[in-house]
Amino acid sequence: MTFLQDTIVVLLSQVTFFVGAWIFFVKQLFKDYEVRHIMVQLIFSITLTLSCTMFELIIFEILELLDASSRYFYWCLMLYLLLFVVIVLNPFYIAYYCISNISFVKPDYIKHLTVLVWIIFIVIFWKFGDPFPILSPKQGVLSMEQLVSRIGVIGVTVMALLSGFGAVNYPYTSMAYFIREVSITDVMNIEKRLMQAMDMVVMKKKRIAIAKRQSLEKINEGMPRRSGLWSMIYPGSNNRNQENISQLKLEIAGLEELSRQLFLEAHENRNMFERIEWSKTWKGIYFNFLGYIFSVYCTWKIFICTINIVFDRVGKKDPVTRGIEIAIHWMGFNFDVNFWSQQVSFYLIGCIVVTSIRGLLLTLTKFFNRMSSSKSSNIIVLILAQIMGMYFVSSVLLMRMNMPPQYRTIITQVLGDLQFNFYHRWFDVIFLVSALGSIVTLYLAHKQPVHENL
Asked: Taking the model in full, what pTM does it have?
């Protein structure tokens, strides 16, 4: 009876997640496209549903909802289903749609080539994990550890890259300190110069059209049949017309390039002016304050990652346990450790879950809107679903360290004998590279605005 009740709870939550994923797909990702392949929508929704269910099970572990045996069963079930989607189903359909878009491939060969490409993917995926110390040699070929370990390397890499860039980019985009001073006069002046350049382009193109029409009129009037003085004058006049047209084309090319640069500068100035106005609002002041907090966090995280890499150090205790120990031993507080450990863990993991899902979905939406087209939209959605599945599997690997030991028992049993310390060191390395690379890139972009290149 208890297992049946637990099953109803999990199924209801999955239906809710699936409906939310379906609505997000239709209303957000594919709002500008027609959904032609229902299988693409199903794969994306199932991937997001399974990922959210795993995060829900983490919350259940902290709150001790459901029976322990039920939680263990659904951990294994959801993880195996997500691995099937990420390793088998999604790559197969990515290969299928990629091959289907190749015009010279005959329809009879599409299925055979899809199977061949999928087999090549499996071989590469399996060999990918060989250079990394991610497994104990005791594990079987098709064990949970073999699959999760390889997905974890790719997913942790994606997480670290996004985290490193986000930790640097958020303060840069939200803090008023990095906003270049632009007045409304500057915006109007550059827009006026842009309109003048465009008017000159239009005027010179009109002169070219008039010169070509005059040349055609002279040819139609039979000017080459004339003799005497006119026969010597008109050929020279035609040559001059051709020289004028060539000169005008060169001038137009230069003016069009100038117009492009002026447009970029006008767009940048307009964005900067809007950011300045937005920073003066209460919302802008709030985000500016958050930017300072994240800049401190970014500096601290880069420092800690450097220390971890140099000294080969991995945190042994989760933040909640460490904070409680500091409160008891150093500050002298006396409270119920088990109760507050559960409460703080719940809110901490809940915040991590919500921000992880929200941040990834926003990033995927921006990427899709920039990269997709009517032909490639299905392939890009499947690639995003693949990244999302690997990202969330890796989130469980890393989130385990943020949970007190009493709440991570079942997760450790399900994931098996993985080298968890390796993933944390790997995250530190990639995060440090991503953050430093983002700092250099944004520094160069900030020091070289568009108007300096005109």
From this structure: 0.70
